[in-house]
Amino acid sequence: MKHTLLIVPGLGDSTTGHWQDNWLQHFPNATKVVQNNWNQPQLEDWLKNLDATINSIETPIVIVAHSLAVSLVMHWSQKNDTSKIAGALLVAPADVESPEHTPEEIWNFAPIPLDQLKYPSIVITSANDPYISAKRAEFLAQKWGSDFYNVGPKGHLNLASQLGLWEEGQQILENLLEKITKNQK
């Protein structure tokens, strides 16, 4: 079964050189959620754009969310029919509830929903992500029923991390796709 990889960037967008943008170019089945205001995100506006993008896709969707977009996906999943979602790769979640970890412009995404997801998911964090502690990321993964990967000290897994096509992330994505296939049998 063919899936659409739905790239969901966080604050500031995932522009040229970011692994999400590289995946968008690399995978022929990838598309991206585009937001109207990347730098002053408003949860309700971002939810509308995510919902419209999901509704425009015909095939089952594998979400690939980064940073603030992880909270966005959690809010969307709590309020909507998730039957089109085959799975989600939730990378470097930003702790929007922590003033010490995140900037004020994203606090309107708090609180982070803690409901268990109805689809397979994997949370990936870095040991030295400035926007969340590894312990908090693991706690969120447990609450959501997600598998958890700590990929070591690689920052926020963003452009500054210089991950290129992020082969390690692609391997974790493969693990998710295998899990999805097993669940469909």
Please give a structural write-up:
- 34% of the residues lie in helices and 16% in strands.
- The chain starts with a strand and ends with a helix.
- Helix 3 (68-79) links the parallel strand 3 and strand 4.
- The chain has five helices and six strands, in the order βαβαβαββαβα.
- The chain has a single domain, classed as 3-Layer(aba) Sandwich (Rossmann fold).
- With 185 residues, the chain is of the alpha/beta class.
- It has helices at 19-26, 43-56, 68-79, 134-144, 167-184; strands at 4-8, 30-32, 61-66, 85-91, 121-125, 147-150.
- Strands 2-1-3-4-5-6 form a six-stranded parallel sheet, sandwiched between helices.
